[in-house]
């Protein structure tokens, strides 16, 4: 019997359904069947989908057997039969002991029950924390270039200012990247190639921007804007503060970025200053194509 729930909690009991493996008597839980106060009987397969990491057909067996067992238990209880009298419909499966569980609500009872299984999802501290970005931090040159372009666009075409620094969620739960400009026809991130900057971050931050653009393009699907590219600031030719070796570094860096972009079916466009980047943004975003 289910004990009376404490205020603010839902209590229940669960029973594991076990599948024997190998020749040493190992058992693995493939489903949990249960009863919760105020919610009646329920059952869940431990595997939410086939596990491709397991050998042979084992990953599919855990999923399909668990789903079959769960459906059979619910059907049994719907007919008014006692859950203690139910037996798994597949030969070889065994049942464990009934165990009491409690949670903040019914879904929490289910999560706690599944977490008791060795192959079930185990809540971790990372689940409740925002996703940590794997992208390299922006260089000072890159940040200043972005803000300079944004200021120029706001001055020239104020209505486009709201399209800067858009967040992109790939999982629906957490932000996994920021796109510098997302318009109806044009999407870009900004990078800066400073030959006198740190070599470790010269390509790293721009590569991270290319990754974000590629994932944004995938997320858009068929609705992807017509132009998605990386805009890079490079020093104008002939400036006395840069040597020939510095300009060679710029050329090699741009070539490497274009090779990366080509693998993602993207483009890299180089500019010398913010007005040039602003002009390209406005030209591509406000263009009207006639079919």
What's the structural blueprint in terms of helices and strands?
Layout: E1 10-21, E2 26-36, E3 40-45, H1 58-78, E4 94-95, E5 99-103, H2 106-115, H3 140-156, E6 164-168, E7 177-182, E8 186-192, H4 199-202, H5 204-220, E9 227-233, H6 244-263, E10 267-271, H7 274-285
Parallel strand pairs: 8-9, 9-10
Antiparallel strand pairs: 1-2, 1-4, 1-5, 2-3, 6-7, 7-8
- In total, the number of domains comes to 2
Largest sheet: number of strands, sense, barrel closure = 5 strands, antiparallel
CATH architecture of the largest domain: 3-Layer(aba) Sandwich
Find the CATH topology of the largest domain: Trna Endonuclease, Chain: A, domain 1
Parts with pLDDT < 50 across at least 5 consecutive residues: 4-8, 123-136, 170-176
Order of helices and strands: EEEHEEHHEEEHHEHEH
Q: What is the SS-derived class? A: alpha+beta
3D shape: elongated
> Percentage of helical residues?
25-40%
Q: What count of helical segments does DSSP give?
A: 7
CATH class of the largest domain: Alpha Beta
Q: Roughly how many Å is the radius of gyration? A: 29 Å
Task: Kindly report the average pLDDT value.
Answer: 81
Q: What amount of the residues lies in strands?
A: 15-25%
Distance between the termini: 70 Å
How many extended strands? 10
């Amino acid at each position: 019997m289910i004990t009376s729930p404490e205020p603010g909690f839902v209590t229940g009991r669960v029973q594991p359904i076990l599948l024997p493996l190998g020749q040493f008597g190992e058992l693995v839980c493939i489903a949990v069947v249960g009863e919760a106060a105020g919610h009646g009987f329920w059952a869940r397969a431990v595997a939410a989908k086939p596990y491709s990491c397991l050998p042979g057909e084992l990953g599919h067996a855990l999923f399909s057997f668990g789903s079959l067992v769960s459906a059979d238990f619910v059907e049994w209880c719907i007919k008014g039969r006692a859950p203690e009298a139910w037996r798994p419909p597949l030969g070889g499966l065994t049942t464990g002991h009934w165990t009491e569980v409690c949670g903040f609500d019914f879904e929490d009872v289910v999560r706690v029950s599944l977490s008791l299984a060795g192959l079930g999802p185990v809540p971790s501290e990372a689940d409740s924390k925002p996703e940590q970005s794997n992208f390299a931090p922006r260089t000072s040159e890159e940040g200043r270039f972005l803000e300079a372009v944004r200021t120029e666009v706001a001055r020239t075409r104020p209505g486009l200012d709201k399209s800067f620094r858009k967040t992109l969620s790939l999982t629906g739960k957490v932000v996994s990247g920021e796109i510098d400009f997302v318009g109806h026809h044009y999407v870009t991130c900004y990078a800066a190639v400073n030959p006198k900057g740190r070599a470790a971050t010269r390509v790293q931050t721009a590569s991270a921007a290319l990754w974000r653009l590629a994932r944004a393009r995938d997320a858009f699907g068929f609705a992807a804007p017509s132009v998605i590219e990386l805009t890079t600031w490079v020093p104008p030719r002939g400036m006395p503060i840069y040597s020939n070796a510095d300009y060679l570094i710029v050329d090699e860096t741009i070539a490497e970025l274009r090779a990366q972009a080509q693998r993602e079916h993207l483009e890299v466009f180089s500019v010398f200053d913010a007005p040039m980047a602003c002009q390209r943004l406005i030209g591509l975003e406000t263009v009207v194509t006639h079919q």
